[in-house]
Amino acid sequence: MIQGNCLCGQIHFEASEIPGMVFNCHCSRCRKAHGAAFSTQVICSKDSLKFSIGQEHLREYVVGNIVRAFCGNCGSRLMNYSKGPEYLSVSISTIEGRKELMPVGECFVLDKLPFVELGSTIAHYPQLPLFT
Questions:
Q1: What's this model's pTM, rounded to 2 decimal places?
Q2: Which residues contact 92 (CB under 8 A, 6 or more apart)?
Q3: pLDDT tens-digit profile of 27-72?
Q4: Domain boundaries, the chain
């Protein structure tokens, strides 16, 4: 179980991570949303997401079937999810007390910025790998 919160602390949540499903995402949408060269996402069970406080501060930006959720007060990027039951990906930077979570792969590597060096000890994928 992961527990996370936004920068201002108004939103607190928890979700059940899927073991071994942590990825660095190099897609242009994640780069723009996070203001960084890539984002690190922990894939979780969507139906396990629970807010302990602050759900009323959650804001969503929807593009197609993908929802990007953030804090309406401080702007912290919290998570992405699909409108369907498929997945929930939580920004690793929002997670408290789980320093052992490490990326097992890098996805959308064809979109990476030229100065970014891919990890040599983890897998590289042209898209987010399917999981069952």
A1: 0.89
A2: 22, 40, 41, 42, 101
A3: 999 999 999 999 999 999 899 999 999 999 999 999 888 899 999 9
A4: 2-124
